[in-house]
Each structure stands twice: as C-alpha cells, then as structure tokens.
Write a structure and sequence with these properties.
Radius of gyration: 20 Å
Number of helices: 11
Distance between the termini: 46 Å
Strand content: 15-25%
CATH class of one domain: Alpha Beta
Order of helices and strands: EHEEHEHEHEEHEEHEEHEHHHH
Number of strands: 12
Shape: globular
Structural class: alpha/beta
CATH architecture of one domain: 3-Layer(aba) Sandwich
Strand order of the largest sheet: 3-2-1-4-5-6-10
CATH superfamily of one domain: NAD(P)-binding Rossmann-like Domain
Largest sheet: 7 strands, parallel
Amino acid sequence: MSLHDYDTFLVTGASGFLGRRLVKLLLRQGYRVHALSRDPGNRSLFPEKEVLFFVGDILSPEVLREAARGCRGIFHLAAYARGWAPDEEIYIEHNVGGTENVLQAARAAGVPRILFCSTAGVINPSAGDPADEETPRTLPYFTAYERSKARAEALIAEYVKEGQDIVIVNPSRVYGPGPLTESNSVTRIIDLFRRGKWHIIPGNGKSYGNYVYVDDVAHGMILAMERGTPGRRYILGGENLTYLDLFARLREATGRKPFLVPLPLPLMLATAYTMVASHRVAGLRPLITPEWVRRYMYHWKLNISRARNELGYAPLTFREGLERTLQWLEKNDE
C-alpha cells in the first residue's frame, strides 16, 4: 500500500525533539495526525486543525486505543531516553512495556502498519569499516537505554512473526532545530561552541560518531513507513566524524576558536562515578554516567546504504545541516 493511501497517523512522543519535526512534515505532506503527549500544555505546539491532540502516555492502554482509532499507521517515537534513571526498570517499563502497549493498541484498532523508532546504539561499535544493520553484536550493551531498545526490537520480531506489519528505524546522533533538551545534546554542544562556552574534547578526540540532521530523520521515517520491509532495520544516519572533525567543522562555520582541552577517559570515568555517588548522598541527578563514558572508548561509524538503496534516503552533509542549525540558533537567540 502506498503511503498516499493513508490519511491519518498516530505519532507517540509527538512533543519530543523528533516528534515535533515529524508532525510538521506529515502536515506539510497533507496528512492528519493524532498527536500523543503526556503534558496537556503541549497542546499549544500543534494549533493546526489537522492535529487531534491526545493527553496520555504509552503506559495507558486505554488512551492508546482511543488515539489509534481511525489511524492507518503509527509512528512510535515515545520512549524513556534520559541518560540516567535511579532504577533500570524505568527503561524496561516504558521502552519495552510501552512498546507492547502500542502494538496491542494497533492490533485492537486494526492499524495496518507501525514504525518503531529504536536507536543506532543497538548496532555494534565499528571496527574498521562502518557497521550496518546486519553487523553482529559482539559487545554487551553499554547503557540501560540501549538494553531496553534491544529488548523492544526482540519483542517486535515476535509480533512480526505473528503477522504484524512493523518496520524499525535506528537514528544516530541527531541534531538540529528543536528544544535544547537531553535528546538534542549535539545541538546543545553546537550552541555552547558558537557562544564560546565549550572547552572539552572527549578523550583524545579521535573516536567516531555518526551525525544526522533532524529533518532527515523525519523524512527517513516517512520513507520507511512507505517503503520499508516488515521486521527490517534501517539506520537513519548522516556523516561519520571524529570529535576532532566535529570541532574543526564548528570552528569553520562559526569563526570561533575556543581553547579546547582533551579530557582523558579515566578522568571522565572518575567524574561520572563521583556524579553517581553524589546522587546517593545528596540526590543530585548525574549529568553523565560511567556507562555512557565507556561508549567513548569505541568507534560508532555507520553505513547507511540500506536506507539509501531501499528507501531513497538522502541526508544532508554535516556542513549543510550545521549551517541550517546555526541559522535557527541565531534566529532564536535570546
């Protein structure tokens, strides 16, 4: 079925960094949207008459069934994505249990197709060549978030075997216009750098990551909804860059040349352990955890050929995406 045979989509996590851009893009393409958000105050984000706003979350089966009614597809973006939680079960409850609630609601409402937004963090670190969707996972997952998303993907595989039509996308490090929240941490770095307030190079700066512009991910999700094979993963990434590459591009684009200090991984680990200990003593939420620091020890180069070839996915270069992000930051400067 062509995507143009669809008319209304449910977007869970509609008020999040990715969700907002996806909703706006769906509206521009002429679709109606059921937007699910936990916060009633987020209703003002979607003044368009083509948006029907639902207050609730993915832990509420009744709300999900109501929101899914009349939809031809579900974009499931909602997740517990913070870098730390006092109990790992919070990730399991939201990212696995919540996903099953969405799948059950889709089945009850007769929704024919679902897109699940996972993470490229479940892909194995790269060793030499960039990793792709079929690269075997040889290392344990580093964080509770990654573990929960991997479990959700395993759950989806069971539902696909039972005949449910579900496609998976795995975005990498997303940046671009949107709220400067934890989910948009790369843009926060860009913003601090352009203001001359960023002075750290993680580790030796030579570890690779993959950076993708937010609107490219939203476009990729719509392409995956239309063209993706059920049960198949699609990495929605952009350009592979080291931290040194990243900061060189930022210097070139902003004209800023802040003094950058390499922060050795042992020192980063010690700082992370101190932050976790401070939570136990004073209840302060750690900004980074040892699990996330250990990820910096590996390369995360990604191969996006499957999305290019099967979906027609064509992301911007990092320079293009960075230019658009800086323009947005300057326009929205306080």
